[in-house]
Structure formats: structure tokens, C-alpha cells
Amino acid sequence: MNVARNICKSAWGKVTPPVESDAAEVPVWSLIHDQISWSRPLQGQLKDASISVEDLVDYATYLKEAYPENDEDNGEQNKAIQEDRILSFARAGGLGAKFKNV
Fold first, then answer.
1. Which of 21, 25, 95, 18 is nearest to 58 (CA)?
2. What are the pLDDT digits (tens) for 5-30?
3. Element of type H or E holding 56
4. Which of 54, 82, 62 is nearest to 11 (CA)?
5. Between 22 and 98, whose confidence is greater?
6. Distances 24 to 17, 40, 66, 67 between C-alpha atoms, Å
7. For the ranges 23-27, 32-36, 48-52, 86-90, which has the lowest average pLDDT?
8. Dist. CA 83–CA 14, nearest whole Å
9. Exposed/middle/buried for 79, CB within 10 Å: 0-12, 13-18, 19+?
10. d(CA 100, CA 92)
């Protein structure tokens, strides 16, 4: 679990508003930087120059903001969602599948 958490803290992407069809209204995170890094990538390190590094957020932070554990009604459920998403992040089909250790 610790390795999975570290990968999520080191994977950088962009958050976009939820799609209209999402009843839960959860923003969408997509991987932008193709390397894991403890610190936010520099502008020159991004393949897409149109994306600003200030817009990047690591996956672990995204999960905490999208599924807050301190939510009175859904805190336990959100905690379970975070754990599930962390564990599945680098698996085949996951948002960070490119970081899977083969």
C-alpha cells in the first residue's frame, strides 16, 4: 500500500470539471506528466506546452479533494474510495497504468 501511495503522490495530472452526465459531480483527473516526480514538473518538461504547470496536481491530492474524508455524510465511503483508487492506480487499465512494475 505504501508503494501505491508514493506513486499517487508522484504522478502529475490535470483536473477538469465533471462531465454533465456524472450524477456525483466528481472532477476528472488525467495523467499529464509521463514520469513520477516528488516535485511538480517544470514547464519545459511537459510534452504539451499549452498546459501550465500551475494547473498540475498530484493524484493523491486530487483524491483527497474529490473524496474528502472529513465529509460528515460520506467520510467512510470516501476513505474506501480513496483506498480503492490508490490500489488500482498503477494496475492495467488504471489512470497510472504506465507506472506499473512488470
1. 95
2. 999 999 999 999 988 777 778 899 99
3. strand 56-58
4. 62
5. 98
6. 12, 29, 10, 11
7. 23-27
8. 20
9. middle
10. 7
Q: Which three cell numbers mark 18?
A: 465533471
CA distance 26 to 23: 8
Compute the residue count for the chain. Answer: 102
- Rounded to whole angstroms, the Cα distance separating 79 from 85 reads 10
Q: Which of 78, 81, 34, 32 is nearest to 57 (CA)?
A: 32
Inter-residue contact 99 to 36 (CB < 8 Å): yes
- 76: cell is 467512510
Amino acid at residue number 26: V
The strand pair at 12-16 and 28-31 is best described as: antiparallel
